[in-house]
Design a protein that fits this description.
The complex is a heterodimer of chains A (377) and B (284). Chain A is built from 13 helices and 15 strands. Chain A has 377 residues and is α/β, with parallel strands linked by helices. In chain A, strand 14, helix 12 and strand 15 form a beta-alpha-beta unit. Chain B has one domain: Thiamin diphosphate (ThDP)-binding fold, Pyr/PP domains (Rossmann fold), CATH 3.40.50.970. In chain B, strands 2-1-3-4-8-7-10-9 form an 8-stranded mixed β-sheet, with helices on both faces. Chain B starts with 23 loop residues before the first helix and ends with a helix. The chains are: A alpha/beta (377), B alpha/beta (284). The interface between A and B is large, with 44 and 39 residues.
């Protein structure tokens, strides 16, 4: 008999994985459909000596996790569409000041208050472009409960490895789904922690590129006494308006993720070997796609799936390859084409892109996808 | 012997960006003397701020310093303090930063009574952005967005802090550096949330538009309106309009009416959370 099998909900697994990844601070604000994550954290964090705080608003929650992380404590917040909008300014701050932290956005319909309790994949582009200015984005899209646990741990690892806020884009359906799953052995988990300075405080610069594109990060109160700002800054952390320094720093930010893309991008192929129609999917819609593919295969249609576990950065090379190989790419999404618009750019007339776009809050049914497969065949 | 400010300053960052005659320097110096009096270690102390002229103060202090987003300094500071409750956390803010865009964070930090000290330099104006009116610009005065005279009523920062639950609240002005030092020191020593309002001059943006464009006349305008709290108590409300009431609004010795205490925090927040952890662990 397998050990470690228990009933979990998606929200519970985000909390559990966060704590197993070493998260000891949660700053949150109630918002449907993500509040269960805060509730679990409020219950579990005190047991391990961690801190839960319900802040006065979404903005404050985001600020608090950046503060805690600077003080050396891995931090998480959870939110949903409108709250994610409110967090954007401080999220931009975390990108700019390179403060590791994790934001779990349990997506709901929008814009505005939209559909608070219904399924949507509305924030694919908000995650990419929500804050002003340029910065790299790492965003993960789990589709299964096991994956919620695995990818939440990965989110913390990426944030620590690359000094960057990492976003988990969780479908409402996955957050609220409960099922029995087997969790991996805790001793076998790979947990990454930020690299601290190896030099004495006199020799330390918080954004010293002599150590590569991810500078070592000193936690506050460890004797390094440095300055952090959201203004464009030089390697000392103090503001600069020197055009060359600002340009170089912004480019480094992009590079630190782009150069490590190979370690970050993460996708799965399903029945792709002979496929000439491909479903390009992520999150819960990929589960409907899987059922549709199995049915289509029984009808002799050669259809497969490329499923993203990490949605940003995109596996661009693989998508390009796909575009010149298959006759159609079907992109089912719970939005009006946020990702399919991007795929269309890659395709550039080499293949047909067909979106299946539902924003009514009702999951895309396998039969919806099967119908489209039959149409494009 | 003269006080050695250099011990606490990042001298390579001097000269500072504030206008000659700005009052923020007086507040900064009062703060440095206060932390020296308390023997606070620089490694164990964080200075946090939002955006604005005052929010540039942390950059000059040789401690762990954090310059955040507009109005949000308190939220970052709360994260730091909750993560490391045994460390010192001080926040610098201006009137616009603390009571307009950061107003929500301000009242909630007071409510929690978390052991941090907030210094608000109130110069009645948005200085850095070019002199727009703030929630403390007096009625009738001019700003770049109230050229016909301000009609927006002001907040009383100290009464706001007191009502919201801060456990040490005091106001002085940049004309009284020693008093500021004393109040700041008491605020830093208070095991709870402390608010010190330092009324200051902005002759560049506020003074220039209101016929007091030099630091002397701007500070005299403040000086002429200073009224000690004890004296204000016996004055008529009409005579207190646009005056600067100075003193300790909440302190251990303050004579608050008993009914005003009914909703005050019983405990400092990080201690209350520490006790909660102990309770939960014991149950487990």
């Amino acid at each position: 008999m397998k050990k470690n099998i228990k009933f979990y909900s998606g929200a519970e697994l985000v909390a559990k994985a966060a704590i197993d990844a070493g998260c000891r601070f949660f700053g949150g604000y109630p918002i449907t459909p993500s509040s269960e994550i805060a509730e679990h954290m409020s219950k579990e964090l005190p047991k391990v000596g961690g801190t839960f705080i319900q802040m006065e608003d979404e903005i404050a929650a985001m600020g608090s996790i950046i503060g805690a992380s600077l003080a050396g404590v891995k931090s998480l917040t959870a939110t949903s569409g409108p709250g994610f909008s409110l967090k954007q300014e401080n999220l931009g701050y975390a990108y700019m000041a390179e403060v590791p932290c994790v934001i779990c956005n349990v997506m709901r319909g929008g814009p505005s208050t939209g559909l608070p309790t219904a399924l949507a994949q509305a924030d694919i582009m908000q995650a990419k472009w929500g804050t002003h200015g340029d910065h790299p984005v790492i965003a993960l899209t789990p589709a299964y409960l096991e994956e919620v646990y695995e990818l939440t741990i990965k989110a913390f690892n990426f944030s620590e490895m690359y000094r960057i806020p990492v976003i988990i884009l969780l479908d409402e359906l996955i957050a609220h789904l409960s099922t029995a799953i087997e969790l991996p052995d805790k001793d076998l988990l790979v947990i990454k922690n930020r690299k601290g300075p190896t030099v004495k405080p006199e020799k330390y610069f918080p954004y010293d590129t002599a150590y590569g594109d991810v500078p070592p990060m000193a936690d506050f109160f460890k004797g390094y006494r440095y300055h952090v700002t959201g203004l464009s800054h030089d390697k000392t952390g103090f503001p600069t308006t020197d055009p060359d320094l600002v340009q170089a720093d912004q480019e480094r930010h992009i590079r630190k993720v782009n150069a490590n893309k190979g370690k970050i991008i993460d996708f799965e192929y399903y029945k792709m070997r002979d496929a000439d129609i491909v479903i390009f999917a992520y999150g819960s819609t990929s589960r409907a796609a899987r059922v549709a593919i199995d049915k289509a295969r029984k009808l002799g249609i050669k259809v497969g799936m490329m499923r993203l576990r990490v949605i940003w950065p995109l596996p661009e090379a693989e998508i390009l390859k796909l575009c010149s190989k298959v006759k159609a790419i079907i992109v089912p999404e719970m939005n009006l084409g946020q990702l399919s618009n991007v795929i269309e750019k890659f395709a550039a007339d080499r293949t047909k892109i067909v979106g299946i776009n539902h924003v009514g809050g009702v999951p895309i049914h396998p039969s919806n996808i099967l119908d489209v497969i039959k149409e494009v065949k | 012997m003269a006080f050695d400010y250099e011990k606490y300053l990042r001298m390579e960052k001097i000269p500072h960006l504030w206008c000659p005659g700005c009052g923020i320097g007086v507040v900064l110096k009062s703060m440095l003397r206060a932390i020296d009096n308390l023997d606070w270690h620089r490694d164990d102390t964080a200075f946090v701020s939002g955006i604005g002229c005052t929010s540039r103060a942390p950059g000059y202090i040789d401690c762990n310093t954090l310059h955040t987003t507009h109005g949000r300094g308190l939220t970052f500071a709360t994260g730091i303090k909750m993560a490391k409750p045994d460390k010192n956390v001080v926040i610098f803010s201006g009137d616009g930063d603390a009571t307009a865009i950061g107003g929500n964070h301000f009242i909630h930090a007071c409510r929690r009574n978390i052991d941090m000290t907030l210094i608000i330099v109130n110069n009645n104006i948005y200085g850095m952005t070019g002199g727009q009116h703030s929630p403390t610009t007096p009625i009738g005065f001019k700003a770049s967005t109230t050229i016909y005279g301000n009609i927006d009523p002001s907040f009383d920062i100290c009464l706001l802090a007191r009502a919201a639950g801060a456990t040490y609240v005091a106001r002085s002005t940049v004309n009284n550096g020693r008093t500021l030092e004393k109040y700041i020191q008491k605020g830093l020593a208070n095991k709870g949330f402390s608010v010190i309002e330092a009324v200051s001059n902005c002759h560049t943006q506020f003074g220039r538009k209101n016929n007091m464009s030099d630091p002397i006349s701007s500070r005299k305008w403040i000086k002429d309106r200073e009224i000690p709290l004890a004296k204000a108590r016996s004055m008529k409300a009409d005579d207190l309009k646009n005056m600067v009431i100075t003193g300790e609004f909440i302190s251990e010795e303050s004579d608050m009416e008993r009914w005003e205490n009914y909703n005050r925090a019983l405990e400092e927040y990080t201690k209350a959370y520490g006790d909660l952890i102990k309770k939960v662990k014991k149950k487990k």
